[in-house]
Amino acid sequence: MRNQGSKLDVVHRFFSDTGFSYDRVVNLWTCGFDCYWKRRIMGLIPVGAGAVLDQACGTGILTLKIARALPGCRVTGVELRDEYLALAQAKSRQTGASNVRWLLGRAEEVDPGEHFDCITSSYLAKYADLRPLLVNAAGLLRPGGRIILHDFTYPTHPLFLALWKAWFRLMQTVGGRLFPEWRTVFHELPGFLQETRWLPETLSLLEELGFTAITCTSLTFGTSAIVTAQKPRP
Fold first, then answer.
1. Domain residues for 10?
2. What is the pTM of this model?
3. Residue 202 domain-assigned?
């Protein structure tokens, strides 16, 4: 398994100079399921949440959905790459979202200076140093607050795994020609997903750190999963 330093290297190698086409590619790449998965995440945010932190917010797709759906909520988006954060900020200005702020930083280290009712992330866990990420999240959540982590998983059903591999081969050929800036991701991500242990490691760490009400939901034939957990009340 790659260590923290090399995971950061992977992030920069995968996503350098890709922000301008990210929104189109993530929709194509997931066959449109990205929208469905984000709706599932939003449905898990606690009712009446007053402050939500969206980690690894990218171009702000999920962050701005949360802000629109919860206009009375303070929403904070955190992103490691300034290229992506600038795009999220531009979207925010265009849509007039007034309940969002943006921070540049690593999810494992960021301190926004407040506590949150909910922390969300999509596509972060496989790249993260999980123990610091979850320790930091525990410190940022209010008692009773919820963490929601969503990411890709490697399919286990033989038939769907064959279809999944065929789709990636198509993305590597046709997709690589249409979006040459994504060739590295198209070629390397399948192996990265086969190797990652983010899901069992996350579940184990959440239990170790004292989180309660831990759930894991597999989505879309095992191609992604959502994990939720609650910070205990005193």
1. 4-155+197-230
2. 0.96
3. yes
> If DSSP codes are grouped into helix, strand and coil, which group holds residue 103?
strand
Within 10 angstroms of residue 185's Cβ, the number of other Cβ atoms is: 22
Question: Is 135 domain-assigned?
Answer: yes
Give the DSSP letter of residue 219. Answer: E
pLDDT digits (tens, 9 = 90+) for 105-124: 999 999 999 999 999 999 99
pLDDT tens-digit map of 113-153: 999 999 999 999 999 999 999 999 999 999 999 999 999 99
Sheet holding 141-152, edge to edge: 100-104, 74-79, 51-55, 116-122, 141-152, 224-230, 212-219
The residue to which tokens 């407040």 are assigned: 114
| CATH number, domain with residue 111 | 3.40.50.150
Residues 6+ apart with CB under 8 A from 49: 70, 73, 117, 118
